[in-house]
Amino acid sequence: MINDLWYKNALIYCINVESFMDTNGDGCGDFEGLMRRLDYLAGLGVTCIWLLPFYPSPRRDDGYDITDYYGVDPRYGTSGDFVEFMNQARERGIRVIVDLVINHTSIDHPWFRHARSDPKSKYRDWYVWSKKRPRNWNKGMVFPGVQKSTWSWDSEARAYYFHRFYDFQPDLNTMNPDVRAEIKRIIGYWLELGVSGFRVDALPFVISEKGPHTGSPPPQDFEFLRELRLFLQWRQGDAVFLAEANVLPDQDLEYFGDNDDRVQLMFNFFVNQNLFYALASGDVRPLTNALKKTRQRPITAQWAHFLRNNDELDLGRLTEEQRRCVFEAFGPDKKMQLYGRGIRRRLAPMLNDDRRRLEVANSLMFTLPGTPVIRYGDEIGMGDDLRLQERQCARTPMQWSTEPHAGFTTAEKPVLPVIDEPIYGFQRVNAADQKRDPESLLNWTERMIRARKECPEIGWGEWKTLATGSPHVIAIRYDWRDNAFIAVHNLDSKPHRIRIDVASSGRTSLINLLSSDHSEGGDDGVHRLAIEGYGYRWYRVGGLDYILNRRRS
Ligand code: NOJ
Ligand code: CA
Question: In terms of pTM, does the model score above 0.85?
Fold first, then answer.
């Protein structure tokens, strides 16, 4: 049975259809374009695509403001194109998960239009209202600095409505049984079209009590989450929820549940922030701590690890001093920062396009206990355009080639400007050139993905950190069935000598999976290794024949 948990050894790749590939020359990416790039994704080793919202939307928040849950925005194609895309992805063995944005709708959604214009409409109670301005009207904003309140006056309804996010995203009243039934219909609909699950947007807010008099923090209804999960599984046995929930470690188990009855996957925001602190400071100890704090989870559950995503790099969970350190290293300029808590840049510019650092960061992410998630463009080291508003700066079109607009579109004006400057511009950073260069970041990434998939210990195994004797070097050991794997990463610019104890007694060699530089170790089972600045090693424990894993995975 357990072999059916496909997500344990998956490689997830996050795509915004709008900025991936345009085929009809209107400047906007589309499903047809995505289909033409499926071979590229298959070649890279992607096993699961996560599609950002592609539903009809005025796109004031990049599609996280939906006007119809049961369709495809005509700019990207038709439902027919979507089904065709699903079929082509399946032919290549690639699964698809889609964003489930059910905390709020667009203010232009017909449900909200009915709700605001007719107090007797059945949709009135689908949203969250207050006749008087609630005491906490300007508390709890998710986008501080840009978003001014969480309650806004609607002159048509003659009432205040609640919006956890921007004022054009009224919150759905997720306590209403009709809304809950509708959410299940949405889940059921996309499952019928063949998706393997959902990235659940803003999950903590979806299950929170909403209203003018709720406590702070508001009580949460995890029973509702269980209900959704049961529904999901009844409809499709192998479908998953991947939760976006930036919560503290002591809440993790509430989301995972203890009986495989809530979400299977969650982004590990806590580790993500500590990982960036480690990259900035060279000190891996807080990262090790974060891994330990998030260790506990049910056996079927899994962390999703990532470097960057479609939003800002949120540093809100670090200490003041740690945050200052990351800001200084990766976003010293005010214009690189966002919402007082994060950095809005892409990975490559944060790391100064330093190949050694890009490699060590990605290699570390690939070897964390969980499933890796890559953001489109990071495999070629794309940059950002800080002239664009808020998080838009890191959502520019994919850079395919040296053709005009990076081969993304033949239109004069792409949906967002393609990056065109000396370092990160498409003339220098593009997939076509990198395909031809065996040493490119793209081909390196492809090799690492392949290696990662050949080490199912990482996704499946038991893990522990090994003492290295250095605060700059982290070593994680995985054991699963007959295999053991050890990843070593030095986050300091200087070389370090470390010792790791592999076996409690006797000699056990370490086979380097990425080069021929193996380590025999001493008779005491201790390996004394010299790791260059930003160096990394992937070892399998055992003789040379352990290069290939010993058991079917
Ligand atoms: C999280 C998404 O990643 C973000 O882009 C969006 O603005 C909010 N949820 C609201 O839907
Ligand atoms: Ca198009």
Answer: yes
Dist. CA 59 → ligand 2 center (Å): 15
Atom of ligand 1 nearest to the CA of 103: 11
CA-nearest residue for atom 6, ligand 1, is 64
Residue 529 phi/psi, 5° resolution? -120, 145
Strand partners, 200: 100, 243
Q: DSSP code of 147?
A: B
Which domains does the chain possess? 110-162 (3.90.400.10), 461-552 (2.60.40.1180)
Distance from residue 355's CA to the centre of ligand 1 (Å) = 30
* pLDDT tens, position by position, 354-401: 999 999 999 999 999 999 999 999 999 999 999 999 999 999 999 999
pLDDT tens-digit series, residues 137-172: 999 999 999 999 999 999 999 999 999 999 999 999
Q: State the CB neighbour count (10 A cutoff) for residue 468.
A: 23
Q: Are 487 and 538 contacting, i.e. CB atoms less than 8 angstroms apart?
A: yes
Q: SS3 breakdown of the chain: % helix, strand, coil, rounded to 5?
A: 30, 20, 50
- What CA–CA distance (Å, rounded) separates 379 from 319? 30
